[in-house]
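hey so i finally got around to running the thing on that chain from the lab meeting. sorry it took forever, my laptop kept dying and i had to restart like 3 times. anyway pasting the input first so we r on the same page abt which one it is
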Amino acid sequence: MSAANAATAGGLFDKRRYIAGPGFSRWLVPPCALAIHLCIGMAYGFSVFWLPLHKAIGITKSVDCPKDMGFLAEAFTTTCDWKVSSLGWMFTLFFVFLGTASALWGGWLERVGPRKAGFAAAILWCGGLLISAFGVTIHQLWLLWLGSGVIGGLGLGLGYISPVSTLIKWFPDRRGMATGMAIMGFGGGAMIGAPLADFLMKHFATADSVGVWQTFVVLAALYFVYMVAGSFGYRLPAAGWKPAGWQPKAHSALITARNVDLNTATVTPQFWLVWGVLTLNVTAGIGIIGMASPLLQEVFGGHLIGVGKAFEQLSPEQHAAIATLAAGFTGLLSLFNIAGRFCWASLSDYIGRKPTYMVFFLLGIALYATIPWTAAIGSLALFVGFFCIILSMYGGGFATVPAYLADLFGTRMVGAIHGRLLTAWSAAGIFGPVIVNYIREYQLAHGVAHAQVYTITMYILAAVLVLGLLCNLLVRPVADKYFMTPQQEAKLDAAAGTEATAPADAGAPAAPSSGAMVALAWLAVGIPIAIGVWVTLRQAVKLFGL
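ok and heres what got predicted. didnt touch it at all, straight out
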């Protein structure tokens, strides 16, 4: 490759090459973010592969490993099928490395821009799927952990944070709504990807294959196209750009017009209080997501199918019947998780971020504390409804926190600060399941009936939210000493090579982008979302016998 061509190729990722000019519509940016988030959001739906992979050798029936086979031996064996619990480590690795990547490379993202970060995410996430496909073909579990879990997890982290600061800069008037639109996609990825993966596995299944490796390859190809299109569709606003007719309101005490540096932000009390807010909100919700299906089945038992028997008294056929209904419950929770990301984050634009989290905690405390009562009176509608609201606030917490950080620390480094804050997700991914799963196992081991094993857990989760409420109450404006001076910001501009960006435009772009272009961008992400919602609702209505 010639030097000129090399420079041109490298220039594709130069931030100065994709500064938006006059006529660019900011409404083209959210579909780009959604294109990436809908792909990496399949991490939530990876459990659809567990049972087929559990029979990768036996095809129709799992070939069990010797009982004395150790954990590491299972990772390298080629003679027996993997346990579901061993496959589940991929899910853990996803979110550990998501937090790791976002924390380590958030600053790099701010320097190089969202296009390069989004493209890197596509390489890592889709490359991880291909490595996993190869691992399935040679039956090596460690390659699935490495491919999807570690490498794919790094892609999750970069893809998740890639649009945050860009969207906040394009939508200074609607910060919450903008980040809610993008992060909504992460919650919706499984709603689209899981049914698609199920269809593909059935299509590729043969007498010699469960169809998983072929599904991984097809998903990798589809996701790569979407993610690359999304990353190259990103545009940055010109310096000083603002929406037409919009004037910044007088800043409240908790909304700053100044900026805090990444490393400085992480030593402020506000950062760690918001870290606690997110950790505790997610801890309460993520344990429920992981146990949603058994939770409904064990609490309501045969009443789900009109049989007056407890869970432990049901026949295998009856267990299968209520498991189908519980799948509808899980899908419904996923739908509210998605909707909450957009609706709660948009609401925060009007009432503020701190008040929004106050609602999350106060309402969440009341709902968790009341759920045992709904189970005691046998009200399926109230039980399901309360959990749907809880999961909407779980998703809303993720979508609102980037705007909360921008309010406190400014927009300059918000993507990187958000990246470090996401270590809260990794911590909550441990705390939540431990609270729900181990308390359940302890009570079952001591003879507590299945219908009552979650009662104490609900009260504990309510107490967790009380701690989150206290953290949120303690959030105050960032002290003046932490903000960057104009000289420090100019030095950052010079280091990043962005001091020569397009001239500031005090108004909106001169003309709108092509309406057809905007419509096509939204259709590209909107059609898959609509299909996912339809499939989920069709499954969920069965829960109420409709």
